[in-house]
What does this fold into?
Amino acid sequence: MTTTTMIDTDTARLLAGQLIEFLETGEVADGLFAPDVFCDFTPPEWRLQAQGLGGTVAIRKAGHPSKGRVPQARLDVTERGFVLEVEEIWDGDDGEWYCRELIRADVTDSSVSAISVYCTGDWSPAQRARHSAEVTLLRP
Amino acid sequence: MEGRADLLHAFAMARDAGEVAAMTEAALALAADHPFGVHVGSIPAYLHEAHTAATGRDRVRLAIALARIWGYGNEAERGAPFAAEAVAGASELDDPALLADALDAQLLARWGPDELADRVAITARLSDVAAYVPAVEPRLSAHLWRLTTALETLDAPVLLRQLRALDELAAESQSPKVRLFADSRRAMHALITGDLDAAERLRASAVAAGEQAGAADTMAIAHELAGWIARQRGDQAAMVAEAATFEQYGTAEGIPSIVADGAALLLAAGKRERARSLLDQVAGADFSHIPRDVDWLLTVGTLTEVAAATGAHELTLAGARQLERYPSRAIVNSGGVVFGGVVDDVLRQAASALGRDEIARKWAASAAAGYHRIGARWWLQRLALPGAGVAFLVPGTDGVWTVGTAGATATIREVKGLRYLRLLLERPGSQIPVLALSAAVAGHGEVDEPGLEVLDRQALAAYRRRLAELDESSDPAAVAEREALLAEVSAATGLAGRQRSTGSSVERARVAVQKSVAAAIKRIAEVDPSLGRLLHDTVRTGSSCGYDPDPARPVRWVLSR
It folds into this structure.
């Protein structure tokens, strides 16, 4: 039986900030992930999983090896952890690439113990330009 | 050494040929070097078949092996009849070396919590017999048993004499196996006295000797010592890593004492929820299914500590009731590999957790007496902590926090520094950049916010109600209001923009966090001066902030209700 408790907003904010830092730099802050963290990553039409810190970092680095930016993010605290919605931008040879991700994290003992990531897939500069030309978004 | 398949083949061939002596040697070789605590599988079946057929000295050797294998497999009661037969047979043959071996096996079969008096008596006989045997093994066995029973009974002079005797035997014999035992027990004693550098050094030399000897228990000894070194150093990362190893191995092999050790390490590392989860896995309803063998006191004692610290009141009570029968007894891992405190100390923690402060004080006094007897400095320091080493920093409702030590808490009004402190105490040994810390505690006016918005649901609901009303109207004023509200809702529910950190924002955050934390510690010190001092000494603020626990003043923090 796993004991779960309502996590507090301060802890969720700290972990979410550290998670964004990880997305931006690839560096894992002390205590961000539990040593046996479970990662469930769902890009378009595919799914990958890892158990443990090494595997989780490896999944991230296989997809996004270079540093990037998270210009926008939104955090919602949940009973067992938090949900983080992010936009990511990173530089490619042909310009800026882009993706959106929804990340659900379970928190145990003040560290992320499980993480589910749903990703839009990587939009190339050309795809971004086509989307911008064809679709007018209601909200940023 | 031949492989298992070869030995099984040799046994089958000997059986077919009716060669009992060959069956005996094959069965004994199968049982050799079986690791302690691991399930014995079919080994007893082969030993028993050979034992049934054998006579004389070989029959005694097989009875010894049967008693020992059941003891190693944590089913000592099955070995007891064979041990008795072996002792009687060896006495009849007037073979001191064989008798010493039989007594060693009998001790393995009498290793439960209620058989200490038997162990002391058998150990005395073993020492007498081994004194006239030149071979190394009987003398090693006698020294180890005397050391173990001395540790169990907190008899420091005998303990020190046996440590010295093991050193001499290792030097005299040049045996790496004896060196493994001598140095690992020296490491155990260094941990008792709080000499962690010596413990590290002796652990390394013990492991090297064990690997040279090919001793099956080397890795178990290495991990047991590493776990306690990490605990006494307050090395959180090492504790978590060791705990994972203990959990994995203990679960895979079905050994409750090893899972319990993992839970204790997690607890010491501040991982209360995971420690509680392991407790729930192995404790059952009331510990009644834990075998009353060599590991019983270790398992129930360790789990009762975890129960007391994690609010498992029924298990705490059940553990305390059972442990009360063993006052002034040390909690020892198998043959004295590690010392886990005295039963009285566990009872103190249990009584404190159950709110029985007067009883807790009584157990604290008797625990202190036990620790003084063997010079257990680290344990005495732990005991001397205010409130039995459990401290509270718990946010409550209406901006009131509970702070203080067990049995002596107070409430204080919330200040921002308490929230910073709590985040730092959650992560002992970690470095947190000051901007990350200040961003986590929302509403800090002086520093850049990273824009991680928690939705104000009440405000949004009001906006949406008004939008619904305005949707029906074509009045220009209503349309303008609608557009303005839509912009607000969009900003609130979309992805919030994040500002970038700058040098000036780091400096502002550093100053603000430092002031806030200092003010919070001052407020805590007003209601609990010793806790205030502890926080003052162990919490650092700067461009990075952290909480570095003081190994000399270990505290188990309770940070949520």
